[in-house]
């Protein structure tokens, strides 16, 4: 668990660098990865601060996975739009 948390934190640092670069390059969606990182960290707190199941069904681990389901489409939306932005920047540099 500790190793996974460390790798996750390192990943967060990389995503904050991506956020800074997107801001610096004028990408209008620069804020989105930062918000998604914070929401992912909030969801991870369910996993980190484990608690017993309630209603005999929902434990911390199941709620962690449930929370991340909602974040995945937003990550992909950002990645697609960021790739389009990068293509636009590449096209401008060739002209």
Automatic annotation (TrEMBL):
It comes from the Eukaryota. This is Uncharacterized protein.
